[in-house]
Amino acid sequence: MLSSNQEPNVSSNYSFKGNLMLTIGKLGQSAGVKVPTIRYYEQIGLLPEAERSAGNQRLYSRKALERLAFIRHARDLGFTLEAIRDLLSLSDRPDQSCAAADAIAKAQLAEVETRLARLTALKAELERMVVQCAGGRIADCRVIEVLGDHSLCTTDHRHPETEAAS
C-alpha cells in the first residue's frame, strides 16, 4: 500500500491531460489488486471509470490509486463492499463529522468479535472431537459420529447463515 509520499512503482509512466497516469496493470501492481477486481470495482461504482488513451487503454490517476488502496485496505479489514461504499462517500466529504465512519467501524468490530467467538467455539468443539477419537475403526470414530449428529456438540458453532436456513 502507498503512503501519501510514495510514488507508485512504474516502469513506464503515461501522461494524460498533463497528469501522471497508470495503466490498469500498473495500478493493480501498485495497490496489490488484480486487474479483474479493478474492473469489477469500476463496474459497481467504487472506482470511477478510467480515462482512456487514444488507443482506448485505461489510464488511472494518482487519486484513483489512493482510492483503490483505501478499498484494498478496507477489504483487508473485512469491511463489506457496501460499508466501503459508505466510507468512500464519507471520505469524499471531509468537513463532515466522523460519527458515521465510527459507527461503520464499530459495526465491523462487532462482526469480527462475533466471528472470533464462533471460531473459538468451533476450535473447542474440534479439539473435543479429536481428543475423544480413539483412533480405532470408522464404525467407532467419534469425529464421524459427532459430524453426523449436531446434538452431540457441546457448543453452538453453526454459521449464522446456516442457522437461518434451518
What is the makeup of the main sheet?
4 strands, antiparallel
Cα radius of gyration in angstroms: 24 Å
Count of helix runs: 7
Mean pLDDT: 84
Q: How do the SSEs run, as a string of H and E?
A: EEHHEEHHHHH
Overall geometric form: elongated
The stretches of 5 or more residues where confidence is low (pLDDT under 50) are 7-12
Category by helix and strand content = alpha+beta
Q: In short, what is this structure?
A:
This protein has helices at residues 24-31, 35-43, 62-76, 81-91, 99-132, 142-148, 160-165, and strands at residues 14-16, 19-23, 51-52, 58-60.
List the defining traits of the structure above:
2 domains, 4-stranded antiparallel beta sheet, 4 strands
Task: Give a structural overview.
- With 166 residues, the chain is α+β, with helices and mostly antiparallel strands.
- The chain has two domains: 14-91, Orthogonal Bundle (Multidrug-efflux Transporter Regulator, Chain: A, Domain 2); 99-165.
- Helices cover 54% and strands 8% of the residues.
- It is built from seven helices and four strands.
- A four-stranded antiparallel beta sheet has the order 1-2-4-3.
- Strand 3 and strand 4 (58-60) form a beta hairpin.
- It starts with 13 loop residues before the first strand and ends with a helix.
